[in-house]
Write a structure and sequence with these properties.
It holds the Pfam family PQQ_2. This is Pyrrolo-quinoline quinone repeat domain-containing protein. With 371 residues, this protein is mostly beta strands. The chain is 6% helix and 49% strand. The chain has a domain of 149 residues: Beta Barrel (Lipocalin), CATH 2.40.128.630. The strands form eight sheets. The chain has a four-stranded antiparallel beta sheet with strand order 1-32-31-30, with no helix packed on it. A hairpin with a 2-residue loop joins strand 23 and strand 24. The longest helix has 9 residues.
């Protein structure tokens, strides 16, 4: 029996793991390890070995103002360590591995460390995007301002104002992406779009016009900057020299993710998960509606909507996980081979992957499952 068919059979056996535990049954991929008693939030991520959950919008009924919240849990069994709220709906987040940074529509930037320590700073407008790298946290605001804070203390290091119209309908808000050695900013007006790249000290390295902006997050990985314009484009991080263009990708339904060795970039789109070689931009493989239809006998690709919402490479670099809106969770090898599929896991929220477990957040709970 294949791993895929094994998971399909187990789908209809509710409670099987518990009933067989005393008989020496070993849990398989997708089986539940633990689940919290709390309602699920909007995303879960790991920061310094602690599991964090961010709730983007949870109105307080006492004074009826929108708030966001961050809760912390142990990774071993899902025990809650603490929770705090902040004023304003959360708009974006970033992590540098040691801290979690959350931007809000109330013009705040909130930093949380693995042990719960936090600082909060205020910017001039609601936060549009957040990125973190090199000990800095970068914020793009609705007013077109870019602000760099010290990641540890929250002290402002530098700021710049972009010439964007104050009317949001006439501009693309600055979307930031950061990596070692640079900050990339995708922004524009109703007439033009542009990619600006800065050094950590705020000095301009280079800029490139974009045919159009999707207001998608640029990515800095190694010595390359990746931007979503009408297609996926790669530039040399230091000089801005174009490296390649992949015209087989369109509008993303989730952020770009990179394999551990940096040789593959995974792109989730509505109807496909696409794997592209970072060296030359060539497509390696894709899992799309057609491949899914072949798994579901009696249905054509025109009756299938994969609904890819996010991809997360495994820490060991040997596979990638794909979550979807309607067809559950998939695991693929780096060559595109399907490892296993758990149809029960329909969720559109991001999740964390460790060496042993997958953690996802739905509408009712945070759940950890065996890999």
């Amino acid at each position: 029996m294949t791993e895929y068919s094994r998971r399909t059979v187990l789908t209809g056996l509710t409670g099987v793991v518990g009933s067989l535990a005393g008989c020496g049954y070993r849990p398989g991929p997708g089986d539940k390890k633990w689940e919290t008693a709390d309602d699920g939030g909007r995303l879960v991520t790991l920061v310094d070995g602690t599991l964090f959950e961010v709730t983007f919008d949870a109105t307080r009924f006492v004074d009826d103002y929108p708030v966001g919240a961050v809760a912390r849990y142990t990774l071993a069994d899902g025990t809650r360590l603490g929770r705090f709220e902040f004023k304003g709906v959360a708009t974006d987040w970033a992590s540098d591995g040691a801290h979690l940074y959350v931007g809000t529509e109330a013009s705040h930037v909130v930093a949380v460390a693995g042990d719960g320590r936090a600082w909060t700073e205020t910017v001039d407008h609601p936060v549009a995007s957040v990125a973190a790298a090199d000990g800095r946290v970068y914020v793009g605001t609705d007013g077109g301002r870019i602000v760099a804070f010290d990641g540890e203390s929250g002290a402002e290091r530098w700021s710049k104002s972009l010439p964007v119209p104050t009317d949001p309908s006439k501009s693309d808000l600055p979307t930031v992406g950061a990596g070692h050695g640079s900050l990339a900013v995708d922004w524009g007006t109703s007439e033009e779009s542009q990619l600006d790249v800065y050094a950590p000290d705020g000095s301009v390295l280079w800029d490139q016009p974009l045919q159009r902006s999707l207001n998608g997050r640029p990515h800095v990985r190694g010595d390359t900057v990746y931007a979503r314009s009408e297609f996926l484009r790669a530039f040399n991080r230091d000089s801005g020299t174009p490296r390649w263009v992949n015209k087989g990708t369109t509008i993303p339904d989730g952020p770009l993710r990179f394999s551990r060795d940096g040789e593959i970039v995974y792109i989730p789109e509505r109807h496909a998960l696409i794997a592209i070689a970072t060296a030359d931009g060539e497509e390696l493989w894709r899992f799309n509606d057609e491949r899914l239809a072949a798994m579901e006998r009696g249905r054509s690709e025109f009756e299938i909507d994969l609904g890819a919402t996010g991809a997360v490479p495994a820490p060991d670099g040997a596979s990638v996980f794909l979550n979807t809106k309607h067809h559950g969770l998939f695991q693929f090898g780096t060559d595109g081979t399907l490892r296993w599929h758990e149809p029960r896991l329909d969720f559109s929220f991001l999740y964390a992957v460790t060496e042993d477990i997958i953690v996802h957040s739905g509408t009712e709970a945070i759940v950890a499952r065996y890999r």
